[in-house]
Amino acid sequence: MESHISAQSTRANAAGDAQLPQVGEPRNPGMELDLDWALGLQANTSAIERRCATLPGRRSVKKEYQAAWLLKAITCIDLTTLSGDDTAGRVRRLCAKARQPVRADILQALGTPDITTGAVCVYHDMIAPAVAALKGTSIPVAAVSTGFPAGLSPFHLRVAEIEESVKAGAHEIDIVISRRHVLSGNWQALYDEMKAFRAACGDAHVKAILATGELGSLRNVARASMICMMAGADFIKTSTGKESVNATLPVSLVMIRAIRDYHERTGYRVGYKPAGGISKAKDALVYLSLIKEELGDRWLQPDLFRFGASSLLGDIERQLEHHVTGAYSAGYRHAMG
Ligand SMILES: O=C[C@H](O)COP(=O)(O)O
Fold it and tell me: Where is the protein found, in the record's own terms (predicted)?
């Protein structure tokens, strides 16, 4: 079994100075491909949809409880910019936001002056400015990789891209899987690919983006989740944000339950990252309550849960400002980059 590498030691090694809180969670080492287990997974779509339909309608937490949950959500955001027109300047502004996600006086009033986002997530060419802008903090830099978002470039180039991004200082690598392996039932190829990506990451943690909106069925989502975990994924992530359907609650329930099964059978906790289209504070609260109910409080820490989001922070900031001052500010005052 692989030695227990904490999130802190991994990121500190890669960054030189990133120091995350010690959590002591052993890293998922993966296991042999167990096709009987993966192919035995089913997804009862109507039961899943019924369960999910009850979630947003419930009475939400209010007042200081809501503020506390929203602060928790901030610590779990991979604050993201993934645009063709990204510049070092935009990334520096985003990193400033990651370091101080909410106005200082609001954070003071809430008693959390030092809160930061969970990470900053960028394309490869933006790693260097992000690492420089986050120097001296414990905020990791995540890089999307392997021909993101389609993942259709030559395999050796996808592996090389990971290695380049780790060399450039990325602490976390968000890879995209080959959807065609899932759609054609080539599970061995999916496992081998994921295993190679994990090996290329070295000490950097790897998030496996399934692009669930392109996998055809919830059963495929369950199987792909399990196979990526068997191949050593540290996190499984729903989407690139570029598919026509990105994070949804039904897909989340399926992936979360695969994570639960994997933990029950292997003892390893794999993280979860819903991504794409999550832009409202109230939606973030629904996701957090789903995680709490299905996986428990341990998974509500940033080493096991992240939101992949480019605009969620702005809405959370507005809600927190309202909580403290009683007034809503205009959305344009919460630009991200
Ligand atoms: O991984 C993160 C996603 O690309 C962000 O998607 P979003 O811009 O819809 O929040």
Answer: Cytoplasmic granule
